[in-house]
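From the pipeline queue, job 12 of 40. The input is one protein chain; the requested action is below.

Action: predict structure.
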Amino acid sequence: MSDEVDLDGAELELTARLTTASNATFVGLIGDREVVYKPSRGERPLWDFPGGDLARREVAAHLVSEALGWDIVPRTWLRDGPHGPGMVQLWCEIDPEHPAVDLLPTDEVPGTGWRTVLEGSDEDDRPVSLVHEDSTALRRMAVFDVVVNNADRKGDHVLALADGRRHGVDHGLTFHVEHKLRTVLWGWIGDELDDDETAALRRLRADLDGDLGVELAGLLTEEARVATIARLETLLGAGRFPAPSGESSAVPWPLF
């Protein structure tokens, strides 16, 4: 694919609509680059999140991902489109044969390389387990989710790419000033952050007082920016992965 296409100014041509998405979501092309497009006018109001901010929160999540240096969120930006201004994100081709998060019969959970989050029963009363990879990429995604206060890390929001990379998508429910963390990536509760994770978080904290803080000020409320700093400092102070807290569910529903 060409790197010369003007992703901000070239025509965005829609090719499909994702009918399973909660908000209006389209697939399209900018030149030869496939993208996801979510127009702001297609957002569905939520009782616990401010309306009209989904696109900006998605872009803010990408900026935090870039500042951490972990390549968690695909390139995401604001621009106009056929249905008005909204969020645009580069499309990712997934590897459906090797999901990073899965729901398996409990007796089929691999002995190594995976972490179990929940155990339960299926519709036939057979034991099943919600599991995810025990990988550096997913550890980093879990840390990222704590910082941005991700309220919607479903299993399908973790994309397993064929080249081994893992991307996170759908970050519209982030940066709330109240604790909202709902995720399927609870496999490291209580584990200490490693040196690389701690160093990245410290860089992020410094960036929030610099250029990143300025960029986020154009996307988030001041209260949301301050709350992000507070979460980051709490995580650094604890030095370990948190456990669920608060009265709301610790996992999103549905899980996928």
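Job complete. The first strand starts at residue 12 and ends at 17.
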